[in-house]
Amino acid sequence: MSSVNPALIAHTTRLDLVIRHVLAGLGHGIHAGRERGAGVEFSEYRSYVPGDEWRRVDWKLAARADRYFVREAERDSHVAVWLILDASASMAEPSRSIEGIDKLTCARTLLACVAAIAQRQGDAFGLVILSDGKVTFTPANRGPRHLQRVLAQLQRATPAGQLPDAATLKASLHFALSPSAIYAASDLLDWPSPLSLALTRLRQMRHDVRVLCLQTQAEIDASFPDTQAYRDPEHEEGVFRFGADLKEGYRRNRMEHFDRVTAQCRTNDIPLTLAAIEQAPGDVLRRWLRRPSR
Question: Where is the DUF58 domain (predicted)?
């Protein structure tokens, strides 16, 4: 199956166009709950009761049995889908190999794809953006018009400041009162963090929480140019250079950090997908949506 090159994300500002290409041929849905209704996949018959739609009556069976029977089918149950976007300053980190793409661009593209899948399934979906110490909500709703509202909010998101503090995020968890599927995209450079505490709390509330951790390939293999200097965009605690003498320590610290992140997600039953923003977005999305093995 062919995958969309991530350069497509860099060369268009139309999220709807990117979604169309990324989702082409992607067969995954968001959730697997089943409930009986007037869906497509036939399940069984039951006796007619007042209020049932006449179009669901099996007239051939009625002629043979001298009573009315209604065809039942199984369909996906509707859950609320919530998208959480980390738009803190560190998400502005660009790719060193693909011009025009950064972590935020990749995150909002993949979240937009999840929103489009939810819309196709008839699920309500909402958006939570974390940026510059604030929480911005787009309430959950259904339909194509709501999808356009969510895409517009994602497009307007800009990386700034730090994540909201723990008290602000804890007070904001009211958005997921009923069982929800929650998809969070971040670089997880701060862990534990207010976001990690909120995601753990949501999982403890019995929500289906799935986390996507995005990094650049340069962050993964420490291939930063020796001649450039770097500043922490969220703390601004001095300027750093990645000389050859520092890279081994960086690799070791990075591995220890993400080993802790992975272990804590596993402990809290939160599926974690690690990806580089240079990878094909369709492949990353497929891994993120894959139902975890039990």
Answer: 44-238
The answer to whether residues 67 and 84 belong to one domain is no
**Bridge partner residues of 72 (DSSP):** 44
pLDDT on residue 179: 82
Going from the C-alpha of 289 to that of each of 34, 50, 167, 172, 257, the distances in angstroms are 17, 40, 30, 25, 24
DSSP-derived 3-state class of residue 145: helix
pLDDT digits (tens, 9 = 90+) for 21-80: 677 756 555 654 444 443 333 445 667 666 566 666 777 777 777 777 766 544 445 678
Residues 66 and 17 in one domain: no
Answer yes or no: pTM beyond 0.70. Answer: yes
Cβ neighbours of residue 151 closer than 8 Å, sequence gap 6 or more: 15, 16, 112, 115
Q: Is residue 1 a part of any domain in this protein?
A: no
Please report the sign of the dihedral spanned by the C-alpha atoms of residue 62, residue 67, residue 73, residue 77. positive
Q: Give a yes or no: residue 294 inside a domain.
A: no
Same domain, 171 and 223: yes
Query: Whose CA is closest to 277, among 3, 5, 1?
Result: 5
216-221-223 Cα angle (round to 5): 85
Range of the domain at 52: 34-76
| Average pLDDT value for the chain | 81
Name residues whose C-beta falls within 8 Å of residue 93's C-beta, 6 or more positions apart in sequence.
102, 103, 187, 216, 219, 233
Do 68 and 178 share a domain, yes or no? no
Count how many Cα atoms sit within 13 Å of the Cα of residue 67 in the half-sphere of its side chain.
6
Percentage of the chain beyond pLDDT 90 is 49
pLDDT: which is higher, 1 or 117: 117
- If asked whether residues 170 and 90 sit together in one domain, one would say yes
